[in-house]
Sequence to fold (746 residues):
Amino acid sequence: MQAKKRYFILLSAGSCLALLFYFGGLQFRASRSHSRREEHSGRNGLHHPSPDHFWPRFPDALRPFVPWDQLENEDSSVHISPRQKRDANSSIYKGKKCRMESCFDFTLCKKNGFKVYVYPQQKGEKIAESYQNILAAIEGSRFYTSDPSQACLFVLSLDTLDRDQLSPQYVHNLRSKVQSLHLWNNGRNHLIFNLYSGTWPDYTEDVGFDIGQAMLAKASISTENFRPNFDVSIPLFSKDHPRTGGERGFLKFNTIPPLRKYMLVFKGKRYLTGIGSDTRNALYHVHNGEDVVLLTTCKHGKDWQKHKDSRCDRDNTEYEKYDYREMLHNATFCLVPRGRRLGSFRFLEALQAACVPVMLSNGWELPFSEVINWNQAAVIGDERLLLQIPSTIRSIHQDKILALRQQTQFLWEAYFSSVEKIVLTTLEIIQDRIFKHISRNSLIWNKHPGGLFVLPQYSSYLGDFPYYYANLGLKPPSKFTAVIHAVTPLVSQSQPVLKLLVAAAKSQYCAQIIVLWNCDKPLPAKHRWPATAVPVIVIEGESKVMSSRFLPYDNIITDAVLSLDEDTVLSTTEVDFAFTVWQSFPERIVGYPARSHFWDNSKERWGYTSKWTNDYSMVLTGAAIYHKYYHYLYSHYLPASLKNMVDQLANCEDILMNFLVSAVTKLPPIKVTQKKQYKETMMGQTSRASRWADPDHFAQRQSCMNTFASWFGYMPLIHSQMRLDPVLFKDQVSILRKKYRDIERL
Fold:
């Protein structure tokens, strides 16, 4: 055996050597013949070898450096590999590689902050209503500037929403019109809005002109063409989508278990051929006519009968049996398959209806995906796994379904219910990219009240806002600052403002008192103010207008603010109790004087009433506690037009603050126990008696209500019948057993 192994090894080694000499000889002969040919051609003057003749030759020589955005403009002398050509042609945008760092000029934003300029409308140019709403939302926002030299971002007045050449809204010659703009600068620092692009039959994402280095806020954009941290994916919305406000979500109360009549529904067009037809043509395989109702119709377009298949008549009959709105209101999940384009109107319809969207649109970059975690509000499916959808959603636990439905309502109302919210969300995302050091985190974007109402310029710490105490495991503040608004001169030591100051200072929760002196008379001398155990700071209002009481003064060192009118009559016990209530509801207004609103059918407008009833929707800031963040929000979020109106009327600032807080929280204020004589005492004071009795004052407040509701786009105030009283309040027990016993004695 050992001898056989040795013979086998020797035979293998010999074979290897033979092969080596054979192939080596071929290469040697080839090189010799090649050298002879070179020598022969050299004698005939046909070849002059270079000094690096003996260096090896590589198939692709190193190319000189060329900036990426100049590759397509170079002549053919610069070699571009086939792979690079494919990459360049794979995108419809020449600025495929654009990112904020490479195609955005940050220096324009450092000087004046984030300001947006809208080009003036050119004469003779038609603008669709949807694009007019977008421009109006920008011009009505706090970001707008009419001075291009102050702008950080530029938006075209040319309508770029519909770039389908078959659409009547299509704007012709857009390429030359855009290039002629003197501020265009190859699209740098420009934002282009687009809902529809491409046309039959392939519906590409080409917008029909060179966008250069401009950002796209685009619906139905694919992940392939989406430029991360540069473009913004927006939802597809209809021309009827409201400009401001918008309807609230359909989830009025939480039903347990959170299941509805239908498990999964869809009702829409079916395309027999072409792009987007595969998924919708296959839906009938999943439809069972019971809890999974997926309805399609071929009955659309001019020539639908010429192209209909064997299922069309049956599908059309079944389609007519069901009401779409009824299905939405009674379904747990709503299928959102792609159409001709990746996006669909069904997406926003499902969100509003609290019907959990089941996405079937492979490659779609979901709206605002940069900041929204869609796994908390939707089920992301795969078109190739359509038949597995029913079993997948049936396996979702009821607790998860309830959480998904609740999140759909939050996202709808925070970012999608109006064109204004879609536009503002787009702008806020871009602003966060520019000022990364104060940008919002994922918790802010995906938790109530959302990114539009939490301004990072106020603070980068979540604990400074009234909405995140529970998330951070923090207790609400234990101290407050009393801010007394003084408008009448100090002529007597018995004036109500001095009694109020002493009562507030005696509170165990009071950290300091600030007197905002908005009186035309000079400041009183320091000895005129009573001595207190807490600091008393007197601030003279520079403008002496009503809105100045809500300025974010640096002197306010506590998160809680006790806002007081100079003629308010409160005891220390009442102040203490109101503050302990506020600690349980730090995001709301908590206080004493309550008012209400109503809809006047005869006048078709909102009405204001001060009648004492069991129903209220406002707590006036003449005696109320709230978080100081609302001072900042009032000053920086609300438009100057509303604040100017308040200042001119010297009225309605308390109503506007209630509008703001209710719009943010989606909750009513909280009324606490009030002494019986409060109304009579307050009305008897000389400083404001004339105001409350003045019919013009009341008419102004009626007018304010409607102006404010018009700007918000809806009525944010919410009615409530809850009043919080101390434990054992009015109970037939000994007064000594009651903590806030003085309230009943008043």
In short: The chain has three domains: 91-231, 260-416, 478-678+690-722. Residues 26-78, 82-91, 677-690 have pLDDT under 50 and may be disordered.
